[in-house]
């Protein structure tokens, strides 16, 4: 039911946007209004812009990233957000820290169940989920496109991984961070821990 969650989340986010004045919350809601992958997508835009691989952005890059991702934020608001993240006043922000803060907060119980699912999928235990990892865990044969002969088993696996992978740079590998980011998005649309945990247990047979 991720598509449904995504729609619900986008509607909720848009409603809240008109009420909130907190700049970080506004940015978070604008990302969530694009569905579970919204925050991840912004992260990818920043990664692409980080030419020197410093994993940091100065204000100009930050502003350009927001514009490239079509975020409705004026310069003053962007400056306010930037200053919140530039804790040491160095004029740059660490974008991993930025994305973690932007991610909707998840309770400890939710994080634990997401990690359980990740570990179950990460057969090789190397901290990355790949097609190889999925072979024994995820049954591709139930997929309608496999059943009607459109896709091979590997294509089903790849499409499955692409759900969690970031939209602009799908490499067929899903890191803990990408998996957590994805579920932070899903989690934002689910009110109770109990329901979230039941959903995860059913989805991953935990």
TrEMBL record:
CDD domains: EFh (cd00051). InterPro entries: Ca-bind, EF-hand-dom_pair, EF_Hand_1_Ca_BS, EF_hand_dom. Keywords: Calcium, Metal-binding, Repeat. Gene3D superfamilies: EF-hand. GO terms for molecular function: calcium ion binding. It comes from the Eukaryota. The keyword Calcium applies. Residues 37-72, 73-108, 109-144 form the EF-hand domain. This is Calcyphosin-like. It comes from Cuculus canorus. The lineage of its organism: Eukaryota, Metazoa, Chordata, Craniata, Vertebrata.
């Amino acid at each position: 039911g991720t598509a449904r969650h995504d729609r619900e989340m986008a509607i909720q986010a848009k409603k809240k946007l008109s009420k909130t004045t907190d700049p970080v919350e506004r940015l978070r809601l604008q990302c969530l209004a694009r569905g579970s992958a919204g925050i991840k997508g912004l992260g990818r835009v920043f990664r692409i812009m980080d030419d020197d691989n410093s994993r940091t952005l100065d204000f100009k890059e930050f502003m350009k990233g927001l514009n490239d991702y079509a975020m409705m934020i004026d310069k003053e608001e962007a400056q306010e957000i930037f200053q919140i993240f530039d804790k040491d006043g160095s004029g740059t922000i660490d974008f991993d820290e930025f994305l973690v803060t932007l991610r909707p907060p998840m309770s400890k119980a939710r994080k634990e169940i997401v990690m359980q699912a990740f570990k179950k999928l990460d057969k090789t235990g190397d901290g990355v989920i790949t097609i190889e990892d999925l072979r024994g865990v995820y049954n591709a044969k139930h997929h309608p496109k496999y059943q009607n002969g459109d896709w091979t088993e590997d294509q089903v696996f790849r499409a499955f991984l692409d759900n969690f992978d970031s939209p602009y740079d799908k490499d067929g590998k899903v890191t803990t961070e990408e998996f957590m980011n994805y579920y932070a998005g899903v989690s934002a649309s689910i009110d109770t821990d109990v329901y979230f945990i039941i959903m995860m247990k059913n989805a991953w047979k935990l």
